Amino acid sequence: MALPPARQFALPLPLDASTDRADFLEDASNAAAVAWLDRVGEWPSGRLALFGPQGVGKTHLGRAFAAVRRWRVIEGPLLRDLPAPAPGGTVLDDADAVPDPTALLHLVNLCAERHEGLLLLAREAPSRWPVALADLSSRLRATTAVAIATPGDGLLAALLAKLFADRQLRVAPDIQAWLLARLPREAAALAEAVARLDRAAMQARAPVTRPLARAALAGWEGFGDDASEAALDLPSPPAAALL
């Protein structure tokens, strides 16, 4: 099988972004995963597992890969019966949450028999899954597993800037840096924060400033504002000024 061009995939930015490669970024956190996705023909036994904590982009990367390759995507918790043949391959998201290990074993065996690729996405490496079936356990241990780490500062900064640009929000670099220091290091959290700020800016008919951001994100569990640092900020403008 001919290998696809290098550097074909990378971490998707917005949660609802298209799978256009222009919408993806790559850094050290996902470079190994991207490299393996570029070498499908080299996957031992035709299987690969990408694993990492929630929010590092496994699902987005897997779905982007599936869209480009025209593979189907199956949600792990929904895998119960044997799926129909899938020309090309299958991406199994939340693979460590399959309710019936027998169904997962059958999927692994069927993909091998049909020479279909299988990409597993999970929080832990397959070798660490608590599996009682000996046959399934041996196949999972033999699956090449690649970790995706927490995105680096550069990728997170680019992600936040891209999310603002997609909504045509002009936010000063110092405000973006201030936000990055207070938001979770997850794509989902950044997307939710930008959506909240967009709504607040539209309602206030004002640009995104620290006071507006603090008011829009106050009480949201994803916002880790520091009250002592907040006291050092300039006084907030009167409410009327933001309307």
TrEMBL record:
Q: Where is the Hda lid domain?
A: 165-217
Task: Kindly provide the name given to this protein in its UniProt entry.
Answer: Hda lid domain-containing protein
Q: Which Gene3D superfamilies match?
A: 1.10.8.60, P-loop containing nucleotide triphosphate hydrolases
One family name in Pfam for this protein: Hda_lid
Which source organism? Roseomonas fluvialis
